[in-house]
From TrEMBL:
Sequence ranges assigned to domain GGDEF in this UniProt record: 1-88
PANTHER family: CYCLIC DI-GMP PHOSPHODIESTERASE TM_0186, CYCLIC DI-GMP PHOSPHODIESTERASE TM_0186-RELATED
Organism the protein comes from: marine sediment metagenome
Residue ranges annotated for the HD-GYP domain, each copy included: 120-315
UniProt xrefs under InterPro entries: Cyclic_di-GMP/3'3'-cGAMP_PDE, GGDEF_dom, HD/PDEase_dom, HD_GYP_dom, Nucleotide_cyclase, Rev_trsase/Diguanyl_cyclase
SMART domains (alphabetical): HDc
Record-given protein name: HD-GYP domain-containing protein
């Protein structure tokens, strides 16, 4: 897999015509697949750029890859859902007017830059993910918290029929929502007793601190609202701004429910995790006050459908069972 929707297939000891026939079989099979999302039905298209090493001269593997890339973009310019061979565009290029701009090279360069940009974005996100892991490693009880919140938030967004791109933004925001806690001292983050007013004020700064970390990366601008507002309450009693109802971005309202559910069902240094039934009761009780009722209903539908990974819940139960009784809440 080369990118979000691009794949490379290597076919050793295969003639170009045979490779083209295999590509056509793949194209036909995918074209027959109909994807349904609500009332919308979509057919898949496949554009293929094919390079035959026996007829295309090249100095190194990167050159072969670039020739396949150029053929792929020629297929897209030809209307998509077709196969273009690199040797075909080579012969066309020989017959072309040299005074014309080489749009294939331009398109190929744009594509390579886009791929490089995507690679750097992944590296940045992976680096922040490393910070999240370092944060959670400070307290064994918060291990995998962000990953679980990401799963729950994505499931809620899908249940609410949000576009796939929105689901991806929400999932990424969930993974990064607590990164600002990296600046909290252990004396606050791991405190077993009640927080003082000053300590609580420090904790309440973490959404803003998370946003400050993320603002240095423009490609995370779609995730920032969810992170900034995920501790707002539906009735306006949350933080950091006291936003109310739909003034709170939907992504943040979704993240709030996912975060609260995992916080309630997970074991913490200062208390044991609650049962699923107890957490559900708390979510229901929080409708119209802490939580958006529609988001709570969507999450309860996810739970009722049995979509939550039983292994996650079982791991939390194991942690609760291992705690001394005086730590269970």
């Amino acid at each position: 897999r080369l990118g979000g929707d691009e794949f490379a297939i290597l076919m050793p000891e295969t003639l170009g015509d045979h490779a083209a026939a295999a590509a056509e079989r793949i194209r036909v099979c995918l074209a027959a697949k109909v994807v349904e999302r609500g009332d919308l039905k979509m057919s898949l298209t496949t554009s293929v750029g094919l390079v035959d090493m026996s007829v295309t001269s090249a100095e190194n593997p990167d050159t072969f890859f670039n020739r396949a890339d150029q053929a792929l973009y020629a297929a897209k310019r030809a209307g998509r859902n077709c196969i273009v061979r690199a040797d075909e565009i080579d012969s066309e290029a020989d017959d072309s007017d040299d005074r014309e701009p080489d749009m294939e090279k331009v398109d190929s360069l744009c594509h390579q830059l886009a791929r490089l940009d995507a690679k750097f974005k992944r590296l940045f996100v992976d680096a922040i993910g490393g910070l999240v892991s370092a944060l959670e490693a400070r307290d064994i009880h918060t291990a995998n918290h962000s990953a679980k919140v990401r799963r729950y938030a994505a499931m809620i967004a899908q249940q609410m029929k949000l576009p796939e791109r929105a689901v991806q933004h929400i999932a990424r925001a969930a993974m990064l929502h607590d990164i600002g806690k990296i600046g909290l001292p252990d004396s606050v983050l791991l405190k077993e007793g009640a927080l003082t007013d000053e300590e609580w004020r420090l904790v309440q700064t973490h959404p803003v601190m998370s946003v400050r970390i993320m603002e240095g990366m423009a490609f995370l601008d779609q995730e920032i609202p969810a992170v900034r507002y995920h501790h707002e309450w539906y009735d306006g009693r949350g933080y950091p701004e006291g936003a109310v109802a739909t003034a709170i971005p939907l992504s943040a309202r979704i993240l709030a429910v996912a975060d609260a559910f995992d916080a309630m069902t997970s074991t913490r240094v200062y208390r044991g995790g609650r049962s699923i039934e107890n957490a559900v009761a708390e979510l229901r009780a929080g409708k119209d006050t802490q939580f958006d009722p529609a988001v709570v209903d969507a999450f309860l539908a996810v739970l009722a459908a049995g979509k939550i990974d039983e292994q996650i819940l079982q791991e939390e139960q194991t942690l609760r069972d291992a705690l001394p009784q005086n730590q269970l809440a």
